[in-house]
Amino acid sequence: MRLAVVMIGLSLLTSCDTGTEQRDEVASTRTVQRPYVPVPPGVIPRGTAAQEAALAAPGPQVTPGLIARGEERFRAFCSPCHGLSGRGDGTVVSRGFPPPPSYHEERVKALSAEQIATVITEGRGRMFSYADRVLPEDRWAIAHYVKQLQAEGGTPMRQGEASP
Ligand code: HEC
């Protein structure tokens, strides 16, 4: 038993950098680092152009598949505050977060799908941006789902499920 403890202790010791190794051994990771290459002017990081294209109006074609995707994403990212029906009565609000306006207020109903997608991208007032969590295509999907929710007066498409 004692021997085992000593062995473990020894193996831990030998795996540490004692500072006595040859410098070139210690520094060997440096050789795999890529050299610094300056970014030529006019270069756009990969993915940015694709993201902007995906966000550009009028956005993807509105299909039942897009709306269904929008509903699924809305439930995950928006309903905690906005509520399943969009009336601003989600669980987070019931625990003290300032209630968002109802989607069924005239002012919010007047927002276009593009404006809703922009709210997701940029945030608005106390609502923070969801740009790092919701993909550009999904922002359109959610926006169109919200427009449908507004048109239907707040009845979630999936029947038989209670509001959270
Ligand atoms: C953490 C709570 C929270 C979440 C989650 C949330 N929102 Fe909001 N939202 C708010 C609040 C609060 C406001 C009111 C902001 C203000 O005016 O200060 C708001 C406002 C809005 C508005 C109205 C903007 C206006 O012009 O008044 C829209 C549209 C909206 N949210 C859409 C969404 C969508 C779509 C999602 C999901 C991607 C989402 N929100 C997720 C809290 C939230």
Automatic annotation (TrEMBL):
Annotated GO MF terms: electron transfer activity; heme binding; metal ion binding
Organism superkingdom: Bacteria
Limits of the Cytochrome c domain: 65-150
Alphabetical list of InterPro entries matching this protein: Cyt_c-like_dom, Cyt_c-like_dom_sf
Family annotation (SUPFAM superfamilies): Cytochrome c
Gene3D superfamilies xrefs: Cytochrome c-like domain
Keywords tagged on the record: Heme, Iron, Metal-binding
Pfam family, one: Cytochrome_CBB3
The protein's name: Cytochrome C oxidase, cbb3-type, subunit III
Organism: Microvirga guangxiensis
